[in-house]
Amino acid sequence: MSSLSQRPMNPVVGQALSHEAADLHVTGAALYTDDLIERTRDVLHAWPVQSTHARATVTAIRTAPALEVPGVIRVLTGDDVPGVNDAGVKHDEPLFPTEVQFYGHAVCWVLAETLDAARQGAAAVEVDYEPLPAIVTVREAIAADQFQGAQPVMERGDLTTAFDSAAHVFSGEFEFKGQEHFYLETHAALALVDENQQIFVQSSTQHPSETQEIVAHVMGVASHEVTVQCLRMGGGFGGKEMQPHGFAAIAALGATLTGRPVRLRLNRTLDMTMSGKRHGFHADWRVGFDANNRITALDATLTSDAGWSLDLSEPVLARALCHIDNAYYVPNVRVAGRIARTNKTSQTAFRGFGGPQGMLVIEDIIGRCAPLLGVDATTLRHDNLYQPGQTTPYGQPVAQAERLGRAWNQLVDQADVSRRLREIEEFNATHRHTKRGMAITPVKFGISFNLTAFNQAGALVLIYKDGSVLINHGGTEMGQGLHTKMLQVAATALGVPLSTVRLAPTRTDKVPNTSATAASSGADLNGGAVKHACEQLRERLAVVAAQHFGVNPADVRFEAGVVSAIGSKAEPITWSDLTTRAYFQRVQLAASGYYRTEGLHWDSTAMQGEPFKYFAHGVSCTEVEVDGFTGSYRTRRVDIVHDVGDSLSPLVDIGQIEGGFVQGAGWMTLEELVWDESDRPTRGRLQTQAASTYKLPSFSEMPEEFHVSLLEQAHEEGAVYGSKAVGEPPLMLAFSVREALRHAAAAFGSPGASVNLGLPATPEAVFWAIESARAGHCGDDLRRDSNAVQPPRPDADAPAMHPLSEQMNEEHEPRQSMLEEPAKA
Amino acid sequence: MEATVNGRCASLDAADPHTNALDWLRSQGLTGAKEGCAEGECGACSVLVAKPDSTGEGTTWVAVNSCLISALSLEGQEVVTSEGLGSADDLHPVQQEMASRGGSQCGYCTPGFICSMASEFYRDSRQACEHADAEHGPNGFDLHSLSGNLCRCTGYRPIRDAAYALGFPESGDALAARRTQPAPQAAPTRVSAAGATFVRPRDLDEALSLLAESPQAQLVAGATDWGVGVNLLRSRAETVIAIDRLPQLRELTETDEAVEIGAALTLSEIENRLDGSIPLLAKLFPQFASRLIRNGATLGGNIGTGSPIGDSPPVLLALEAEVILTSTSGDRSVPLADYFTGYRQTVRAPGEIIRALRLPKPLARLTDFHKIAKRRFDDISSVAIAYAVDVSDGIVTRAAIGLGGVAATPIRARATEAALLGQPWSAETVSAAAEAMSTEGTPMSDHRASDRYRRAVLGTSLPKFFESTMESVR
User: Tens digit of pLDDT for each residue in A97-133?
Assistant: First the structure.
């Protein structure tokens, strides 16, 4: 057992605790960024002027009419930017665009005494546009050859031979839309400027360090002149990894220019029409099976629909490629990736970060091909699971492959699958208009940022003389329970009760250069850093205690706030007694902790290496009932077995599993982004831009029975206290919902129907699937010969993935120049 | 001008006629209630308001979307927010269950869930029941009370567990005790600010004369439609007349000839008072938006907006309802089937107020309501179909079918009705009538559904209804 993963006796980690802020949540006392404006004087409110074209040149902006609106103070335009007019790290996201790139793109921002005045002011601004041709769909982009960024290829084995010798070859196409984050709290920032012109931004951001960096480059100042704080977020899901920066920069710019606090909060319509979403994908694929129904070859080209700027699309695509295998061994593979540039919002990180899109492709392939192979999909999935000793297409050993099989078996037991399958068969035989379906799908998800540099974290732990402990770390709290876990880690590492430890809000002036709280890595990375800081302190305190007890420091024990020594007859002392003694002995009671994930390497050009510290595993089983008249359905029962290692905080982890599952189920069945693809003047407009038109799961979508259990014997050597990351992987457990619907729809037709089910599988999509099953038209869109669909080869001249692609654009000067020569305009 | 919030007086002076209650509460420092959507879909802004109970003698704690209602509509009213229910060191039972069971993750939606859940906690008629089902807990908790609250984090299971674990208010619970006293009266209000006037008239006569003076005035009851426009489209009116508490619009009477339902009764109030006595309406209520919306929305409003996708018109058409319009020159009655004249156009004349809906008796024996939507709770229908059919000696003697979502107005399925009347209630008849039904209306494609699908389910709905009625006919 590694020292990182080893737990002491009676640890605080592993206890099922409520969210550390639960009492504040339920009483409405918890503060979010926009709640702070009621505690801030003289706040100005910002509202954008949004483009009414999907793509156009801005030929003139007349702000004078806005300034005539009572209460309007100023209109911010590109001329006001003292530093770099860019909201991203790729320098392809002008904060004030001269060419608008999507319907709803902010052209300029109005500041006013009230929100209503800002809104009226924005309506009064006159903008002249010269419309340009716009590309709205991924298919249009493919046809126009309009791509951006790298075009990676991941290859293993010999495809030609594999296809030649395959017993069955199928090929087809699969396209699906993205997903809106719909965090309940929309984007918000509140910026203040102090007497030294230092900028302080309260931001709802998953990545305070990068928000700080962007604010600094927009303002033309060094990073140390900007502090970003995130109290907590009302949900993030990846949507606040990249997207908050520009909004924070607008608030900072306004505050600097007016000398007054500026609040920028998007309402839901603004948020949905301006901020990025999960990437939709298009896939061309070709797959080969041997006579035993083992997958032998996969050839696919994935094209992501990235919207107008590059954003995080390259790493999202890399993760999609690295997850197209999901939990299945595919010996011969060639997967190419492209990033379509479309005139839509800049699609971005969303829970799973491309992983779900890659995995969806193989799950769809299996769901389609199983009937054509004459095998049920559950068997096909089970028989293709990774076995010990096998490696992924990018060369990483699947070190815990046996866990997939174990989780599968635990699930089949828990869910009583064979009995229920018989009942479903009986039910379907006796019901003409209603059919039930069941599916089991696995998840294998790589944990770590693909970009190795991001796999580091810092923490600052302070012990005061009275023994109370304050921890700071670089991770942000968005509801995932990171702070709860960090309190548990600190209490465990120091051997004190939970109540001894408090947690300070996430701020860039406490821990610098933090990574985004993303990639499910928050607890792994920050937990490692917090633990490291605590252990330094404990070692120092052990020396003090050892003197008192007259023992070797190694024999000092810290448990529940009591300090004792093995082999000493002296009475134990309290933790606070010890910290007071330490102070008087002039022992430093603060420590900064640092953690870097060991053992990662990744060649992003070759798409080979071991980018992940470990994999998280899970299996889910869903049963649905479908109405043949309308295609409407309900989820009767869901069972999940999921691998969280040795859980740091079981209530939190089960919450993540259930919540991730339901969010995934929303994407699979309900949530539908509809863009105007017509040639009307509203081309490119998001038509589902409100809660009334974009439907999230509500109580009615919750499974009627919902059983979640954690995989047993799941200790993880490579992570803090033996735990595993949990944020993203459960989302993909929801694939079983769509596959169960496919199974039920097929039951309306004759056996062997290969049902093409739309995504999201809305009642309408299910209805058409039933209709085609009934008509026996299933599988017509699939080809059964090897030459039908040839996934296109990537452009050989396209740039390779840059190892630092998230961070740098070589054409730009390094940031240090800011320090040498402040570029204040 | 003030309201009582969490037991304390709070001035409404800063509010203008278009300030919603949420923004006003937040400006008072009560930032527990949140804006998640500003259109009554997410419930993050839910707060409790003391409203008269069905007897009029006591009080019900009603959860409403504070983002939709005007702050000025709270003049003289009592409001409780999540902050008023409990504090971190003295949690309310609802807060206790939610906190301890993992009912909050990011916490943003939580204060709204707390208020919706508290409303159900204090529901007088709630009692422990042995027949818990998917939507009702053993403590009688009706899950529909949370149908208007969205959570993006938890997946809802722990929230359901918290709701189903609730006990009943203990003696000494102040909000429970408050229920035995009358609710605050509606206070006549007249405020002009920011270029607009908000009026809560003393009585119907004052409302009608106001309307006669300014026919363009916006009539508002629950504001579940108007409030959305105010927030999202920045709709503004010179004069807003609040009619939700006018007694003449809040009567529910039943005679041998008809049931008359006041236009300003909320759907929740109607549901409680009818208690299932009109089965077709009983099928409608749980499918109509969410409880939070039903706590404000009225039949008058649902008819008055003239929307083709309101859920009550198809049902009321099937019930062959009449709209009773009132003005300074008295009442007139219009069959609902003649009421809608075009997209959001009706025969209601300037100066008229919808006073009531009249449902003639006897009611049909076979009824059903098919609402086709993406989501079962709180969604707008793609297609809505209501049936009211009588079969006598195996022959269809009455058939009234109301359709929504398939034309510019709600319509009667006349061709289908004709194909059924006088025919045997049989699979053959239904099959032929279903053919006719699939050609009713002029369905369109939009983000909710395609025209093909709308047509297709028009064609399958009648067979589905027929299947479901076979037992009761036999």
Answer: 999 999 999 999 999 999 999 999 999 999 999 999 9
B149 and B42 inside one domain? yes
* Minimum-distance CB partner of A659 among B154, B231, B232: B154
As a three-state string, the secondary structure of A63-95 is: CHHHHCCCCEEEEECHHHCCCCCCCCCCCCCCC
**Using the beta-carbon criterion (under 8 Å), do B105 and A480 form an inter-chain contact?**
yes
Burial of B395 (0-12, 13-18, 19+ CB in 10 A): middle
Q: Which CATH number do you get for residue B77?
A: 3.10.20.30
Structural domain total, chain B: 3
CB within 8 Å: A670 and B461: no
On chain A, the residues whose CB falls within 8 A of the CB of B153 are 235, 479, 655, 659
How many Cβ atoms sit within 10 Å of the Cβ of residue A8? 14
Same domain membership, residue A213 and residue A113: yes
A30 chain-B contacts, CB cut-off 8 A = 107
Give residue for tokens 């639960």. Answer: A22
Q: Beta strand A44-50 with A106-112: parallel, antiparallel or unpaired?
A: antiparallel
**Chain B, 137-156: which have a CB under 8 Å from a chain A CB?**
143, 146-147, 149-156
Backbone angles phi, psi at B165, to 5 degrees: -90, -5
Domain encompassing residue A460: 22-29+456-596
| φ, ψ for residue B367, nearest 5 deg | -140, 155
Residues of chain A under the 70 pLDDT cut: 1, 778-779, 785-789, 802-825
Active site residue A728: yes
Q: What is the CATH number of the domain that holds B447?
A: 3.30.390.50
Whether A148 maps to a domain, the answer reads no
A649 contacts A18 by C-beta, under 8 angstroms: no
ipTM of the complex as predicted: 0.97
pTM: 0.96
| Residue B95 distance to chain A (closest CA, Å) | 5
pLDDT reported for residue B66: 98
State yes or no: cis peptide before B362, omega within 30 of 0: yes
List C-alpha distances in Å: A548 to A184, A587, B416. Answer: 53, 14, 94
Structure tokens at A263: 């609040």
Could A22 and B99 be called an inter-chain contact, meaning their C-beta atoms sit closer than 8 Å? yes
Residues B231 and B135 in one domain: no
pLDDT in tens, B139-192: 999 999 999 999 999 999 999 999 999 999 999 999 999 999 999 999 999 999
Domain with B206 in it: 189-248
* Interval A346-405: pLDDT, tens: 999 999 999 999 999 999 999 999 999 999 999 999 999 999 999 999 999 999 999 999
Of the residues A26, A40, A642, the best mutation for testing chain B's interface (the one with the most B CB atoms within 10 Å of its CB) is A26
Q: Are residues A111 and A203 in the same domain?
A: yes
Nearest beta carbon to residue B99 from set A18, A120, A123 = A18
Report chain A residues whose CB lies below 8 A from the CB of B150.
Answer: 184, 691, 696, 698
Distance from CA of A649 to the nearest CA of B (A): 11
CA distance A728 to A725: 8
- Which one of A728, A806, A820, A821 is the catalytic residue? A728
How many Å apart are CA B92 and CA B85, to the nearest integer?
A: 6
Question: Between B36, B102, B464, which is nearest A651 by CB?
Answer: B102
Structure tokens at B128: 């422990």
pLDDT tier, B472 (very low <50, low <70, confident <90, very high otherwise)? low
Query: B 13-72 residues with CB below 8 A of A?
Result: 26-27, 29-39, 41-42, 44
Domain co-membership, B161 together with B212: no
CATH number at residue A233: 3.90.1170.50
The alpha carbon of residue A769 is apart from the nearest alpha carbon of chain B, in Å, by 12
